[in-house]
Amino acid sequence: MGLALIHHLFLAATAATDNTKGLTAIGRGIVYGGAAIGPGIGIGLVVGNAISAMARQPESAGVVRTTMFLGIAFTEALALFGFVLAFIISG
Amino acid sequence: MNAFLAVDVPPISHVTIWGYGPGGFNKTAAIYVFATLATILLFVLGTRRKDALVPAGLLQNTAESGVGFVRSQVIMQTMGPDGLRYLPYLSTLFFFIFFSNITEIIPGVQFPANARFAMPMVLALATWVIFNVVGVVKQGPIHYLKNSLIPPGVPKFLLILVIPIELISTFLVRPFSLMVRLFANMLAGHLILVTFATISAALFAKSITVVIMPFSFFLLVAMTGFEILVSFLQAFIFTILTAVYIGSAMHPDH
Questions:
Q1: ipTM score of complex
Q2: Å from A22 to nearest chain B CA?
């Protein structure tokens, strides 16, 4: 299935018709989708652990929340690089 | 089908463009003028009644709770009492970014000015200059470079690997990721709102597709509410990261 798709894409890219726009869209999708995998897992880990920390020690919720936002911000940066890169790709 | 054309992702040259109109004055610049004036007016008008013990009025309540928020949630959590001298800069930064983000959901404007990356870049460079100057002044140039390039407790033979990584991450990636974080979050939110608005408009037709219109319209309303949260959160994160960077330049890890 995957090989057939790649073969089809290759044929489409080498054919006489201009498929630049469609291939650009596919490339953007792959770039952003790939860039979102890791940060998605990472943000899940950060928030999940922060919630269990807050549930164990409710009095430390303020500090944990601030640190959680910092962790989210650092993790999320990679996904946003992918988002910007998807814009930079142009046909 | 024409309504779907607005969903097309613009090329990068359209994202970076700055000037239309006289002197390059466009909607983005107008929103920044509004944000600047709103920040100045909030603090000028909100702090006139200094003597009054009980704060009253929308402006004074907003200004005082905003400054209190930056003081207790941003500075005390990251820098400690030493950082209180940066309270004016950080509160101004917070309110300026918030006012230029919140235009994203104001009807009739509906555009976050920070979705064009000129001003996020300027603010990130300002942060970069401030934390470097603070580090050099507080620790001296040699100590500052040594403390920011060599983390404590790293074995000697790993230094050849650690020093380039720390150099890149401290002096290049920090300002770049500050800029990209603010810009990309606002642009992504704006694109989501545009997408659901145009889809709702295109589905609002005399055909069978009108039955799925309420779903995209519901998501449009829900996303508008979510973008209020994002506007606030991005202003908060930019401010707190500035505070963290200044704090790490003031108190190095030992």
A1: 0.70
A2: 12
